[in-house]
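Rotation project, supervised by the postdoc (A.L.). Task for the rotation student: set up a whole-complex structure prediction and record inputs and outputs verbatim in this book. Inputs entered:
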Amino acid sequence: MASDTLVIIPAYNEERNISDLIHSIKQLYPSIDIAVIDDGSSDATARLAQGAGAWVLSHRFNMGYGVSLQTGYKYAVAKDYQCLVQIDGDGQHDPADIGALLAVVKDNGTDLVLGSRFLQQNDYRTSIFRLIGIHVFRVILKLLSGQEIKDVTTGFQAMNRKVLDVFVSDVFPYDYPDADVILLLSGLGYRIKEVPVLMHPNEEGKSMHRNPLNALYYIFKMILSMFLTKMRKY
Amino acid sequence: MPLRQQIVAVAIAISIFIIILELVRKRKLREEYSWLWLLTGTCLIVLTVWYELLLRITHLIGAVLPTSALFFFAIIFLMLVCIQFSIKISKLTDHVKDLTQEVAILKAANPSAGNSGPSDKG
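Outputs recorded:
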Protein backbone atom coordinates (compact mmCIF):
# COMPACT_ATOMS: atom_id res chain seq x y z
CA MET A 1 0.00 0.00 0.00
CA ALA A 2 1.70 3.15 -1.22
CA SER A 3 -1.04 5.64 -0.43
CA ASP A 4 -2.98 6.27 2.76
CA THR A 5 -6.08 7.10 0.69
CA LEU A 6 -8.43 4.77 -1.10
CA VAL A 7 -11.08 5.68 -3.64
CA ILE A 8 -13.94 3.21 -3.75
CA ILE A 9 -16.34 2.89 -6.66
CA PRO A 10 -19.46 0.78 -6.11
CA ALA A 11 -20.47 -0.48 -9.54
CA TYR A 12 -23.25 -2.59 -10.97
CA ASN A 13 -23.20 -3.19 -14.73
CA GLU A 14 -21.13 -0.07 -15.40
CA GLU A 15 -19.00 -1.36 -18.28
CA ARG A 16 -19.75 1.80 -20.27
CA ASN A 17 -18.29 4.18 -17.69
CA ILE A 18 -15.94 2.31 -15.38
CA SER A 19 -12.73 2.38 -17.47
CA ASP A 20 -12.97 6.08 -18.23
CA LEU A 21 -13.68 6.89 -14.61
CA ILE A 22 -10.69 4.90 -13.33
CA HIS A 23 -8.38 6.38 -15.98
CA SER A 24 -9.53 9.90 -15.04
CA ILE A 25 -8.88 9.30 -11.35
CA LYS A 26 -5.46 7.76 -12.03
CA GLN A 27 -4.53 10.63 -14.29
CA LEU A 28 -5.54 13.27 -11.74
CA TYR A 29 -4.32 11.45 -8.61
CA PRO A 30 -1.67 8.90 -9.60
CA SER A 31 -0.73 8.02 -6.03
CA ILE A 32 -4.23 7.17 -4.82
CA ASP A 33 -5.35 3.53 -4.76
CA ILE A 34 -8.67 2.62 -6.37
CA ALA A 35 -10.98 -0.25 -5.48
CA VAL A 36 -14.06 -1.10 -7.51
CA ILE A 37 -16.76 -3.05 -5.72
CA ASP A 38 -18.42 -5.05 -8.45
CA ASP A 39 -21.87 -5.81 -7.10
CA GLY A 40 -22.56 -9.00 -9.00
CA SER A 41 -22.49 -7.36 -12.43
CA SER A 42 -23.48 -9.51 -15.38
CA ASP A 43 -21.40 -7.45 -17.82
CA ALA A 44 -17.64 -6.83 -18.09
CA THR A 45 -17.41 -4.27 -15.26
CA ALA A 46 -14.99 -6.32 -13.13
CA ARG A 47 -12.68 -7.23 -16.03
CA LEU A 48 -12.56 -3.66 -17.36
CA ALA A 49 -11.96 -2.20 -13.88
CA GLN A 50 -9.08 -4.58 -13.31
CA GLY A 51 -7.72 -3.81 -16.75
CA ALA A 52 -7.85 -0.09 -15.98
CA GLY A 53 -5.71 -0.60 -12.91
CA ALA A 54 -8.13 -0.86 -10.00
CA TRP A 55 -8.44 -3.46 -7.29
CA VAL A 56 -11.69 -5.31 -7.77
CA LEU A 57 -13.81 -6.73 -4.97
CA SER A 58 -16.53 -8.88 -6.45
CA HIS A 59 -19.80 -9.73 -4.77
CA ARG A 60 -21.05 -13.17 -5.70
CA PHE A 61 -24.62 -11.77 -5.76
CA ASN A 62 -26.13 -8.36 -6.33
CA MET A 63 -26.33 -7.08 -2.74
CA GLY A 64 -27.19 -3.43 -3.27
CA TYR A 65 -25.45 -0.07 -3.14
CA GLY A 66 -25.12 0.15 0.65
CA VAL A 67 -23.57 -3.30 1.01
CA SER A 68 -21.10 -2.44 -1.77
CA LEU A 69 -20.09 0.70 0.06
CA GLN A 70 -19.57 -1.20 3.30
CA THR A 71 -17.46 -3.82 1.49
CA GLY A 72 -15.24 -0.92 0.39
CA TYR A 73 -15.08 0.45 3.96
CA LYS A 74 -14.17 -2.98 5.33
CA TYR A 75 -11.47 -3.39 2.69
CA ALA A 76 -10.06 0.05 3.55
CA VAL A 77 -9.92 -0.79 7.26
CA ALA A 78 -8.38 -4.22 6.56
CA LYS A 79 -5.68 -2.52 4.46
CA ASP A 80 -5.22 0.25 7.03
CA TYR A 81 -6.10 3.22 4.82
CA GLN A 82 -6.57 6.45 6.74
CA CYS A 83 -8.84 8.28 4.28
CA LEU A 84 -11.49 7.11 1.87
CA VAL A 85 -13.39 8.73 -0.96
CA GLN A 86 -16.50 7.14 -2.40
CA ILE A 87 -17.61 8.04 -5.89
CA ASP A 88 -20.43 6.59 -7.98
CA GLY A 89 -19.54 4.41 -10.93
CA ASP A 90 -22.09 5.91 -13.35
CA GLY A 91 -19.93 8.91 -14.28
CA GLN A 92 -22.18 11.53 -12.65
CA HIS A 93 -19.54 12.64 -10.17
CA ASP A 94 -16.53 14.55 -11.44
CA PRO A 95 -13.22 12.97 -10.30
CA ALA A 96 -11.64 16.46 -10.37
CA ASP A 97 -13.59 17.20 -7.15
CA ILE A 98 -11.90 14.36 -5.21
CA GLY A 99 -9.02 16.68 -4.31
CA ALA A 100 -11.36 19.30 -2.83
CA LEU A 101 -13.10 16.70 -0.66
CA LEU A 102 -9.83 15.16 0.49
CA ALA A 103 -8.31 18.53 1.30
CA VAL A 104 -11.08 19.24 3.80
CA VAL A 105 -10.79 15.82 5.43
CA LYS A 106 -7.00 15.95 5.65
CA ASP A 107 -6.40 19.57 6.59
CA ASN A 108 -9.51 20.82 8.23
CA GLY A 109 -10.17 18.25 10.92
CA THR A 110 -13.51 17.38 9.37
CA ASP A 111 -14.55 13.73 9.72
CA LEU A 112 -17.02 13.42 6.85
CA VAL A 113 -17.15 15.65 3.77
CA LEU A 114 -20.19 15.59 1.51
CA GLY A 115 -19.95 16.58 -2.13
CA SER A 116 -23.01 18.79 -2.53
CA ARG A 117 -24.95 19.27 -5.76
CA PHE A 118 -26.83 22.26 -4.40
CA LEU A 119 -24.08 24.65 -3.33
CA GLN A 120 -23.25 25.78 -6.84
CA GLN A 121 -24.89 25.98 -10.25
CA ASN A 122 -24.51 22.78 -12.28
CA ASP A 123 -26.17 20.56 -14.88
CA TYR A 124 -27.76 18.30 -12.34
CA ARG A 125 -31.45 17.66 -13.02
CA THR A 126 -33.63 15.26 -11.16
CA SER A 127 -37.29 14.41 -10.73
CA ILE A 128 -39.58 16.60 -8.67
CA PHE A 129 -40.29 13.60 -6.40
CA ARG A 130 -36.63 13.17 -5.60
CA LEU A 131 -36.25 16.88 -4.89
CA ILE A 132 -39.23 16.76 -2.53
CA GLY A 133 -37.71 13.69 -0.85
CA ILE A 134 -34.36 15.44 -0.39
CA HIS A 135 -36.12 18.49 1.04
CA VAL A 136 -38.13 16.37 3.51
CA PHE A 137 -34.98 14.55 4.68
CA ARG A 138 -33.18 17.89 4.99
CA VAL A 139 -35.93 19.27 7.24
CA ILE A 140 -36.06 16.11 9.40
CA LEU A 141 -32.27 16.11 9.72
CA LYS A 142 -32.30 19.75 10.81
CA LEU A 143 -35.10 18.98 13.27
CA LEU A 144 -33.43 15.93 14.81
CA SER A 145 -29.80 17.02 14.82
CA GLY A 146 -29.67 20.77 14.25
CA GLN A 147 -27.33 20.03 11.36
CA GLU A 148 -28.02 22.03 8.20
CA ILE A 149 -27.03 19.96 5.18
CA LYS A 150 -28.18 20.91 1.67
CA ASP A 151 -27.47 17.62 -0.09
CA VAL A 152 -28.39 14.85 2.34
CA THR A 153 -28.45 12.07 -0.26
CA THR A 154 -25.14 12.62 -2.03
CA GLY A 155 -23.07 9.55 -2.81
CA PHE A 156 -19.88 11.57 -3.33
CA GLN A 157 -18.19 11.62 0.08
CA ALA A 158 -14.80 11.60 1.75
CA MET A 159 -14.11 10.41 5.27
CA ASN A 160 -11.34 9.75 7.72
CA ARG A 161 -10.48 6.60 9.62
CA LYS A 162 -12.68 7.49 12.60
CA VAL A 163 -15.76 7.47 10.38
CA LEU A 164 -14.63 4.26 8.66
CA ASP A 165 -14.45 2.52 12.03
CA VAL A 166 -18.12 3.39 12.59
CA PHE A 167 -19.17 2.39 9.08
CA VAL A 168 -17.66 -1.10 9.27
CA SER A 169 -19.71 -1.88 12.36
CA ASP A 170 -23.27 -3.22 12.57
CA VAL A 171 -24.72 0.28 13.02
CA PHE A 172 -24.23 1.08 9.33
CA PRO A 173 -27.66 1.02 7.61
CA TYR A 174 -26.64 -0.92 4.55
CA ASP A 175 -29.97 -0.97 2.69
CA TYR A 176 -30.12 2.76 1.91
CA PRO A 177 -27.34 4.68 3.67
CA ASP A 178 -28.16 8.35 3.19
CA ALA A 179 -29.48 11.01 5.57
CA ASP A 180 -29.68 8.49 8.43
CA VAL A 181 -25.90 8.06 8.27
CA ILE A 182 -25.41 11.82 8.58
CA LEU A 183 -27.76 11.83 11.57
CA LEU A 184 -25.87 8.91 13.13
CA LEU A 185 -22.49 10.61 12.79
CA SER A 186 -23.88 13.92 13.93
CA GLY A 187 -25.26 12.24 17.07
CA LEU A 188 -21.85 10.69 17.74
CA GLY A 189 -20.26 14.14 17.61
CA TYR A 190 -18.43 13.78 14.30
CA ARG A 191 -17.74 16.90 12.26
CA ILE A 192 -19.52 17.02 8.91
CA LYS A 193 -19.08 19.56 6.16
CA GLU A 194 -20.34 20.13 2.63
CA VAL A 195 -18.21 21.05 -0.36
CA PRO A 196 -19.67 22.12 -3.73
CA VAL A 197 -19.16 19.56 -6.50
CA LEU A 198 -20.10 19.22 -10.13
CA MET A 199 -22.76 16.71 -10.99
CA HIS A 200 -23.13 15.52 -14.56
CA PRO A 201 -26.49 14.33 -15.85
CA ASN A 202 -26.89 10.57 -15.88
CA GLU A 203 -26.98 9.82 -19.62
CA GLU A 204 -28.55 6.41 -19.24
CA GLY A 205 -31.06 7.68 -16.69
CA LYS A 206 -30.25 4.67 -14.53
CA SER A 207 -31.16 5.06 -10.87
CA MET A 208 -32.30 2.76 -8.09
CA HIS A 209 -35.14 5.22 -7.44
CA ARG A 210 -36.63 5.19 -10.95
CA ASN A 211 -39.24 2.62 -10.08
CA PRO A 212 -42.03 4.58 -8.29
CA LEU A 213 -42.58 1.74 -5.79
CA ASN A 214 -38.86 1.67 -4.95
CA ALA A 215 -38.87 5.45 -4.55
CA LEU A 216 -41.87 5.30 -2.23
CA TYR A 217 -40.31 2.53 -0.16
CA TYR A 218 -37.04 4.48 -0.05
CA ILE A 219 -38.73 7.61 1.33
CA PHE A 220 -40.70 5.61 3.90
CA LYS A 221 -37.64 3.61 4.96
CA MET A 222 -35.43 6.67 5.23
CA ILE A 223 -37.88 8.62 7.41
CA LEU A 224 -38.32 5.56 9.65
CA SER A 225 -34.58 4.97 9.78
CA MET A 226 -33.89 8.60 10.73
CA PHE A 227 -36.31 8.51 13.66
CA LEU A 228 -34.99 5.10 14.80
CA THR A 229 -31.41 6.38 14.57
CA LYS A 230 -32.41 9.23 16.85
CA MET A 231 -34.10 6.86 19.31
CA ARG A 232 -31.17 4.40 19.55
CA LYS A 233 -28.28 4.69 21.97
CA TYR A 234 -24.80 4.21 20.49
CA MET B 1 -68.87 -29.36 21.86
CA PRO B 2 -70.37 -32.16 19.73
CA LEU B 3 -68.39 -35.38 19.72
CA ARG B 4 -67.85 -35.24 15.96
CA GLN B 5 -66.25 -31.77 16.24
CA GLN B 6 -64.04 -33.02 19.06
CA ILE B 7 -62.88 -35.99 17.02
CA VAL B 8 -62.07 -33.80 13.98
CA ALA B 9 -60.18 -31.24 16.11
CA VAL B 10 -58.14 -33.88 17.95
CA ALA B 11 -57.39 -35.68 14.68
CA ILE B 12 -56.12 -32.42 13.12
CA ALA B 13 -54.03 -31.60 16.19
CA ILE B 14 -52.47 -35.08 16.26
CA SER B 15 -51.78 -34.88 12.50
CA ILE B 16 -49.98 -31.55 12.99
CA PHE B 17 -47.94 -33.13 15.78
CA ILE B 18 -46.95 -36.13 13.68
CA ILE B 19 -46.08 -34.02 10.61
CA ILE B 20 -43.92 -31.61 12.66
CA LEU B 21 -42.13 -34.42 14.53
CA GLU B 22 -41.51 -36.28 11.27
CA LEU B 23 -40.08 -33.12 9.62
CA VAL B 24 -37.77 -32.57 12.60
CA ARG B 25 -36.73 -36.24 12.60
CA LYS B 26 -35.84 -36.07 8.90
CA ARG B 27 -33.95 -32.81 9.56
CA LYS B 28 -36.18 -30.90 7.16
CA LEU B 29 -37.26 -28.64 10.02
CA ARG B 30 -35.01 -27.43 12.79
CA GLU B 31 -36.04 -27.89 16.43
CA GLU B 32 -35.97 -24.14 16.99
CA TYR B 33 -38.80 -23.62 14.48
CA SER B 34 -40.85 -26.62 15.59
CA TRP B 35 -41.71 -25.56 19.13
CA LEU B 36 -44.30 -22.94 18.14
CA TRP B 37 -46.15 -25.44 15.94
CA LEU B 38 -46.01 -28.15 18.61
CA LEU B 39 -47.31 -25.65 21.18
CA THR B 40 -50.24 -24.87 18.88
CA GLY B 41 -51.03 -28.56 18.46
CA THR B 42 -50.96 -29.01 22.24
CA CYS B 43 -53.25 -26.01 22.79
CA LEU B 44 -55.70 -27.33 20.21
CA ILE B 45 -55.86 -30.75 21.92
CA VAL B 46 -56.27 -29.20 25.40
CA LEU B 47 -59.04 -26.84 24.26
CA THR B 48 -60.86 -29.59 22.41
CA VAL B 49 -60.79 -32.04 25.28
CA TRP B 50 -61.34 -29.42 27.99
CA TYR B 51 -64.23 -27.50 26.43
CA GLU B 52 -64.98 -25.71 29.72
CA LEU B 53 -61.60 -23.98 29.47
CA LEU B 54 -62.41 -22.76 25.96
CA LEU B 55 -65.70 -21.32 27.24
CA ARG B 56 -63.87 -19.55 30.10
CA ILE B 57 -61.27 -18.10 27.73
CA THR B 58 -64.07 -16.96 25.39
CA HIS B 59 -65.72 -15.18 28.29
CA LEU B 60 -62.37 -13.76 29.49
CA ILE B 61 -61.54 -12.09 26.16
CA GLY B 62 -65.10 -10.86 25.72
CA ALA B 63 -65.89 -13.01 22.68
CA VAL B 64 -69.42 -14.26 22.09
CA LEU B 65 -68.71 -17.57 20.42
CA PRO B 66 -65.97 -20.13 21.25
CA THR B 67 -65.14 -20.30 17.54
CA SER B 68 -64.33 -16.54 17.58
CA ALA B 69 -61.92 -17.17 20.46
CA LEU B 70 -60.27 -19.97 18.51
CA PHE B 71 -59.90 -17.75 15.40
CA PHE B 72 -58.53 -14.95 17.57
CA PHE B 73 -55.81 -17.20 18.97
CA ALA B 74 -55.12 -18.70 15.55
CA ILE B 75 -54.41 -15.19 14.19
CA ILE B 76 -52.16 -14.40 17.16
CA PHE B 77 -50.28 -17.64 16.55
CA LEU B 78 -49.78 -16.83 12.84
CA MET B 79 -48.55 -13.35 13.74
CA LEU B 80 -46.03 -14.83 16.18
CA VAL B 81 -44.79 -17.25 13.53
CA CYS B 82 -44.42 -14.37 11.03
CA ILE B 83 -42.50 -12.26 13.55
CA GLN B 84 -40.24 -15.22 14.35
CA PHE B 85 -39.56 -15.68 10.61
CA SER B 86 -38.92 -11.96 10.10
CA ILE B 87 -36.37 -11.93 12.93
CA LYS B 88 -34.64 -14.97 11.49
CA ILE B 89 -34.65 -13.58 7.93
CA SER B 90 -33.13 -10.32 9.22
CA LYS B 91 -30.34 -12.25 10.91
CA LEU B 92 -29.75 -14.40 7.83
CA THR B 93 -29.64 -11.29 5.62
CA ASP B 94 -26.94 -9.85 7.89
CA HIS B 95 -25.00 -13.12 7.73
CA VAL B 96 -25.21 -13.36 3.93
CA LYS B 97 -24.05 -9.74 3.66
CA ASP B 98 -21.08 -10.33 6.01
CA LEU B 99 -20.07 -13.53 4.20
CA THR B 100 -20.35 -11.94 0.76
CA GLN B 101 -18.18 -9.04 1.90
CA GLU B 102 -15.60 -11.33 3.51
CA VAL B 103 -15.35 -13.50 0.39
CA ALA B 104 -14.88 -10.39 -1.79
CA ILE B 105 -12.14 -9.02 0.51
CA LEU B 106 -10.39 -12.39 0.88
CA LYS B 107 -10.39 -12.90 -2.88
CA ALA B 108 -8.90 -9.45 -3.35
CA ALA B 109 -6.19 -10.25 -0.81
CA ASN B 110 -5.45 -13.70 -2.15
CA PRO B 111 -4.97 -13.78 -5.94
CA SER B 112 -4.94 -17.60 -6.04
CA ALA B 113 -8.55 -17.60 -4.86
CA GLY B 114 -9.59 -15.64 -7.93
CA ASN B 115 -7.69 -12.66 -9.30
CA SER B 116 -8.83 -9.20 -8.27
CA GLY B 117 -5.70 -7.10 -8.35
CA PRO B 118 -4.97 -4.41 -10.92
CA SER B 119 -3.59 -5.78 -14.18
CA ASP B 120 -0.40 -4.42 -15.72
CA LYS B 121 -2.35 -2.57 -18.35
CA GLY B 122 -3.54 0.02 -15.87
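Student's summary: Residues 56 and 66 of chain B are 9 Å apart (CA to CA).
Supervisor addendum: The first helix of chain B runs from residue 3 to 25.
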